[in-house]
Amino acid sequence: xxxxxxxxxxxxxxxxxxxxxxxxxxxxxxxxxxxxxxxxxxxxxxxxxxxxxxxxxxxxxxxxxxxxxxxxxxxxxxxxxxxxxxxxxxxxxxxxxxxxxxxxxxxxxxxxxxxxxxxxxxxxxxxxxxxxxxxxxxxxxxxxxxxxxxxxxxxxxxxxxxxxxxxxxxxxxxxxxxxxxxxxxxxxxxxxxxxxxxxxxxxxxxxxxxxxxxxxxxxxxxxxxxxxxxxxxxxxxxxxxxxxxxxxxxxxx
Length: 253
What we know:
The chain starts with a helix and ends in a 9-residue tail after the last helix. The protein contains 5 helices and 9 strands, in the order ααβββαββββαββα. By secondary structure, the protein is of the alpha/beta class. The radius of gyration is 17 Å and the shape is globular. The protein has helices at about 1-10, 15-25, 80-90, 145-155, 235-245, and strands spanning about 35-40, 40-45, 70-75, 100-105, 110-115, 120-125, 130-135, 170, 215-220. Helices cover about 20% and strands about 15% of the residues. The longest helix is centred in the middle third of the chain and has 12 residues, at about 80-90.
């Protein structure tokens, strides 16, 4: 059994973040006791919640007077020691290049509740209280996947849903699986004066949600540009975090 698990993991390690998430979430159902999942891996309670429009209002995490943004978290004991180390490495990857600091929860406060639920998903931005970030043990515990879901929790949407999307990619709706078109809806995002990034860890791949093996999203004007193959945050992903949170105190303490 362990041999089969290791073999699957070796194959998954070759996939991009978008491919890993689509694979892990393939059989997610919508049940009354679970959050509703939209855009592939974004959890919502009601309605629709690059930076999401909610960051104009209330869903940014609070900055400390020292310039750091402390985000408390809890990691479930469902994970093995090795899996916990992967998750912590993903969290700590923000520390050297942004003002975000993930710290173990120590009191009653808003925090990320990182657990192995069904699939990979996160709410967008700070929700209040404990908010689930799901990293299912089978398929989601990878460095880039951790970064992707944490970027959602910090307030970021997918690249292909940003407000200027149609200037940079073409969506081929005729190739999208039935009832999956909503994954490509445009959101009125705050793009933070950063360029569209085909290499963003938040960008879906060329064949995302394809029903026939044909592309669903292609770059324009050059259709041959590589898209959606990132395995970790790009420089633009990091820049956006710093701009959204107005980071001036970056790096380790």
